[in-house]
Write a structure and sequence with these properties.
500 residues, three-stranded mixed beta sheet, mainly alpha, globular
Length: 500
């Protein structure tokens, strides 16, 4: 059977190459491509998506997987060989249900939707985006129809990002989070002066400082790069080719936190076992686990007072006029200010998941047809006002603030909040194993945490299911209680308030 396995690995490598090339075109589209390249890029990405799908669903690949059915039992379940066959079979059995033409059209529609989203934001005109959303929703229904979805059609979409998880499980976690988060946000009555975070911050100086931080955390010029984009994201072409993007605003330091966030995604892909390269194992196990890494580095490390005991002198040197007379404690309190915001990406730790929950609810309603796409801006604004007490001034602040619906990536948003939950579960396990990582942070030592995550989470790629990996690392299933307890402790420390 070894010959069949070797042939499987060869074919999987070709699929990976095509998919990564399509990903490179997507990265270029959002960072470097001139606007007039949009139509051609949509066709190029559609073609590559179709080719990758045809390779992934080829009868020859199916025959190989069938011949290898006994191969898994001959190896340890955690071995490279057994894991490759198991994950490749899962991917094949899912992909073979979907016509290549539908895969291609979804890629084409998403690319065109992204350009329409940019134009709609520029002109503050939702009607420009609307027909692309309508076409994308039609394609979603076609996609769902390829699968058996007796429980909830949304399960099909969620499974693309969080394999094995059901919509009902997400709804249960969110039903626990929503009232608690609303109560926690309401408990903060004392205004916090965060004026030190607003003013003029030279973008080039921000970039230099951000790179200094990321290099200390584990970024290096040989394997990473940082580029500008409208909506920050991270991508990877291999464990040694990590692409981060950000958006520096000269009126605030949001771009710095964005860099910290995207680093979490990047370090996950960087620390996957190199032996997995060009196989289906060479990725983070799920979107929620990926988001747990970005939120851990952004919040549990990046907003941590111990971290800034070390970093703040360097920030003062970078921006002496802004911070020379601002005490560290004042800066840290401003950085952790709890106050409802219109933009999800600007949200504090307490209110962030409320932005996600409202999007999850709207996605289910759009899918069910109980919210028409033409009415989506009003529905979005109403939920934002209900949960956060804010009303957007326009659709750019409202329904068009995120890029994710331009390609109808339904099922992705909930993984952000699930990532928040997982991040604290992992942090508590890491802290128990490492002692007190904050003592190392004060000395500028972030390697122990990075290496712990590499050993226990990152290197495994997709060897385990998300549920298996979480249980293996933390000894627990998905549990929102540690996350809520963490937020309560933080509010008590920062504001002296106690809730629950």
């Amino acid at each position: 059977m070894q010959g069949s396995f070797d042939e499987l690995v060869r074919r999987l490598g070709e699929i990976s190459d095509v998919e990564k090339t399509a990903g490179l075109l997507g990265w270029d589209e959002e960072t470097k491509m001139p606007p007039l390249g949009a139509d051609a890029r949509a066709e190029q990405r559609a073609t590559l998506t179709r080719i990758a799908h045809e390779l992934q669903t080829s009868p020859e690949l199916g025959e190989l997987l069938e011949r290898l059915r006994g191969f898994e039992e001959e190896h340890d379940p955690e071995s490279f060989e057994a894991s490759v066959v198991r994950v490749a079979r899962h991917d094949y059995e899912k992909a073979v249900r979907v016509p290549p033409s539908l895969r291609a059209e979804r890629a084409r529609s998403g690319s065109r939707g992204y350009r329409a989203w940019l134009e709609a934001r520029r002109r503050d005109d939702y009607s420009i985006l609307l027909p692309h959303l309508e076409h994308g929703l039609e394609l979603l229904h076609e996609y769902i129809a390829c699968f058996d979805s007796a429980d909830d059609p949304y399960d099909v979409l969620l499974d693309d990002y969080e394999p094995g998880m059901k919509t009902a499980e997400v709804a249960e976690v969110f039903s626990r989070l929503k009232p608690e988060l609303i109560a926690l946000a309401a408990s903060v009555q004392e205004p916090v002066d965060d004026s030190c975070l607003r003013g003029h911050f030279d973008a080039a100086a921000q970039r230099r400082f951000a790179l200094s931080v990321l290099e200390r955390w584990g970024m290096d010029d040989d394997a990473w790069r940082l580029d500008d984009t409208v909506h920050p994201f991270a991508g990877s072409l291999s464990p040694s080719d990590i692409r981060l993007t950000t958006n520096f605003h000269e009126e605030n330091l949001v771009g710095l936190l964005s860099c910290m966030h995207e680093f979490g995604h990047g370090i996950y892909e960087r620390q996957v076992d190199p032996a997995f390269f060009r196989t289906p194992l060479a990725h983070g196990v799920s979107s929620a686990f990926h988001e747990s890494q970005s939120r851990l580095w952004e919040n549990l490390v990046g907003r941590n007072l111990a971290t800034w005991r070390f970093l703040y002198p360097e920030l003062r040197d970078a921006f002496p006029q802004q911070f020379a007379r601002v005490p560290l404690e004042t800066f840290h309190r401003a950085l952790n200010k709890v106050e409802p915001s219109l933009k999800r990406t600007d949200a504090d730790e307490v209110t962030y998941s409320l932005h996600i929950i409202l999007r999850f609810e709207l996605e289910r309603e759009m899918l069910a047809g109980t919210v028409a796409l033409r009415d989506l801006p009003e529905a979005f604004d109403a939920k934002l006002e209900e949960y956060l007490g804010l009303r957007p001034r326009d659709d750019v602040e409202g329904v068009m603030q995120d890029v994710h619906w331009s390609d109808m990536s339904f099922g992705y948003f909930p993984t952000y909040a699930l990532g928040n939950v997982i991040s604290v579960q992992l942090w508590e396990r890491a802290a128990a194993d490492l002692g007190n990582p904050e003592e190392a942070f004060e000395q500028g030592e972030f390697g122990p945490l990075r290496e712990w995550l590499g050993e226990h989470v990152h290197r495994w790629g997709r060897t385990f299911t998300p549920q298996e990996l979480l249980e293996r690392v933390t000894g627990s299933s998905l549990d929102p209680e540690p996350y809520l307890a963490y937020l309560r402790r933080k509010l008590e420390q920062l504001y002296g308030v106690s809730v629950g």
